[in-house]
Design a protein that fits this description.
The structure holds two protein chains of two kinds.
Chain A: H1 2-42, H2 44-49, E1 53-54, E2 59-60, H3 63-94, H4 97-112, H5 115-133, H6 141-165, H7 169-177, H8 182-193, H9 195-211, H10 214-220, H11 237-244, H12 251-279
Antiparallel strand pairs in A: 1-2
Chain B: H1 4-27, E1 36-40, H2 45-58, E2 64-69, H3 71-80, E3 85-88, E4 100-113, E5 121-122, H4 124-132, E6 149-153, H5 158-168, E7 178-180, H6 183-192, E8 196-201, E9 210-211, E10 213-214, H7 221-225, E11 232-239, H8 245-255, H9 257-265
Parallel strand pairs in B: 1-2, 1-3, 5-10, 6-7, 6-8
Antiparallel strand pairs in B: 3-11, 4-8, 4-9, 4-11
The chains are: A mainly alpha, B alpha/beta.
């Protein structure tokens, strides 16, 4: 009887676990099935490196959006990662316990703010500031980068902090005993030792930035031309789907699914890189 | 321990069970119960929703379902009969003219600029040049506010299609244009940016932006009705064949004075209900 129950429970859990997996499988199969025909028709090279996106005229080139995704994400990493690292080092090594206990949940709160709120805030504060002080329409790569830099903070901070805290205390004590200052021990011993975790944190942050849609739709301007400066509007792969799905049908819709395939592949590569980085410690 | 063969059987059974529960879910997307289904242009949708709501207040037993999807899918839904009435915000063309249709109202497209921009009048050619990307500075049209920030709707939108048809001719809208996915978002960008120009439904122009005269003709309802304002488009109800019974009763209501009054207060220009 107990044995039967045990088996029943085991299979029950298996069923639930599989349902989560099969959701992934269903989505992947659906996106690929919908998107592949148009890629086959247009050609992989023309689709990925095509410079012109005008579905109503039959042009399906997503290169400007790939550039858009890369530049916005790069901007977010350049602006966000140094802040996140400093924050993680401070929390792990310097902050008194009480302060850490206040700061840590406060930073994690950032992850709980809906992305549409970030976008709206960016539209109301960041975009006009860029337009007035730096020129251009304000809706720009820079605006998107600033918003995404803030949005990736909690991910990068949390994982970097954890990997710093996971280091044996001996490392730091040893360094200090050898006469190194706090900063020397952090820079020379702790950061190199936690490198794999920090790299994984950055990659996961990049994944978050690449996948973000709502906030960037609102501040990026969504132009389909190849941007020539960070003050130009641009479109990312995600916003291409988000902004056009409302009216798309037929080949246009297929092309949006095909954009999803490219996005899926990028995210898969990023996630495997993060996994690899984690394992290499 | 479960032997491998049993394990794989369990796995197979699980997947089968899972798909078996999902398939019926996918299958039941059709119509449920008796009612009227409208589908199509998202420009017409909000107005149709208001009309449907009002009609359902008068006729408690009727259920009207208004769906979006765009003009193209609205016409397609009318052709295939998936919707009782398709909504279109562009004139029918080619094969589509075989369908039954009626014009419920006309919608003007207004060119809007920031209130700080002194420009008051543009010609059709100037608008076309601005959107084609050949005119890039306001100085070319006699305004001091600097670089022009072109704002347009996304590919596939009915408003964009109407604008392209009415204004652009063989030119296409510059890829450098800022793209926003609703009339409201376009208006917001133009209201915030002194250098911006956009196009939205005439009925949605408010005090946060300034409507520009077109070739000396102001974007007003009267000018749309009398035909002197050129940037206007029809809002159509389309069906496979002339509707009968409850569906026709709803169409008649929309074309009645009560329906016209609702459309009028919502900013549209009601015409005579011409159609076939």
């Amino acid at each position: 009887m107990t044995r039967f129950r045990e088996k029943l429970a085991q299979r029950g859990f298996l069923l639930v676990a599989l349902s989560a997996l099969s959701a992934l499988a269903l989505i992947t199969v659906f996106i690929v099935a919908e998107g592949v025909p148009i890629i086959a028709k247009v050609g992989v090279v023309n689709f990925i490196f095509g410079m012109k996106w005008a579905p109503s005229q039959g042009y399906y080139g997503i290169f400007p959006m790939i550039v858009g995704s890369i530049s916005v994400t790069l901007g977010a990493v350049i602006l966000g990662v140094p802040i996140a690292l400093c924050c993680a080092i401070f929390l792990a090594e310097f902050a008194p316990r009480l302060m850490r206990e206040v700061l840590r949940p406060a930073i994690q709160m950032l992850a709980g703010i809906p992305s549409v709120v970030y976008g709206f805030w960016g539209l109301v504060f960041i975009v006009p500031a860029i337009r007035v002080y730096l020129g251009g329409p304000g809706l720009s790569i820079l605006a998107g980068s600033v918003i995404l830099a803030i949005m990736i903070l909690p991910t990068v901070i949390a994982i970097s902090e954890v990997s710093l805290l996971a280091l044996p205390r001996l490392y730091k004590e040893g360094a200090l005993a050898l006469g190194a200052t706090q900063w020397q021990s952090i820079r020379g011993v702790l950061l190199p030792a936690a490198k794999s975790g920090i790299v994984a944190a950055i990659i996961l942050g990049v994944g978050r930035a690449v996948g973000e849609t709502m906030a960037v739709i609102m501040v990026l301007g969504n132009a389909v031309a190849l941007p020539s400066s960070i003050l130009d509007p641009a479109r990312t792969l995600t916003t291409n789907i988000g902004i056009e799905m409302g009216y798309a049908s037929g080949e246009h819709q297929q092309a949006l699914f095909a954009t999803g395939i490219v996005l899926l592949i990028i995210i898969m590569i990023l996630n495997s890189m993060a996994q690899l980085a984690f394992r290499r410690r | 321990m479960v032997r491998p063969s049993t394990k794989s059987r369990v796995l197979a059974a699980t997947l089968v069970a899972l798909f078996a529960t999902l398939v019926p879910l996918i299958g039941c997307g059709g119509r449920a119960g008796a009612g009227i289904i409208l589908a199509g242009s998202t420009s017409v949708q909000p107005f149709a929703e208001i009309l449907a709501e009002d009609y359902m207040k008068l006729h408690q037993d009727v259920n009207i379902d208004v769906q979006g999807g765009g003009s193209a899918s609205g016409i397609l839904a009318a052709q295939t009969g998936t919707a009782d009435i398709g909504m279109s915000s562009r004139a029918l063309e080619g094969d589509e003219l075989k369908l039954w249709w009626v014009e419920i109202a006309r919608d003007g497209i207004a060119m809007i600029v920031n209130p700080e921009n002194p420009v008051a009048n543009l010609t059709s050619e100037q608008v076309r040049g601005i959107y084609a990307g050949t005119i890039t500075n306001w100085s070319a049209v006699g305004s001091p506010v600097g670089a022009i920030h072109v704002v347009a709707r996304e590919d596939g939108s009915g408003t964009r299609a109407s604008f392209e048809e009415l204004v652009m001719g063989s030119d296409s809208i510059t890829p450098k244009a800022i793209i926003q996915d609703s009339n409201g978002a376009v208006r917001q960008v133009v209201a915030d940016d002194p250098g911006a120009i956009g196009f939205i439904s005439l009925g949605l122009v408010d005090s946060s932006v300034k409507g520009v005269d077109l070739g000396g003709v102001a974007p007003t309802r009267d000018n749309v009705v009398n035909g002197s304002y050129r940037f206007s488009r029809p809002f159509l109800f389309v069906a496979r064949s002339e509707p009968t019974g409850g569906v026709m009763d709803f169409v008649d209501y929309v074309l009645s004075d009560a329906g016209k009054q609702i459309l009028g207060t919502e900013g549209l220009v009601t015409t005579g209900g011409s159609g076939q």
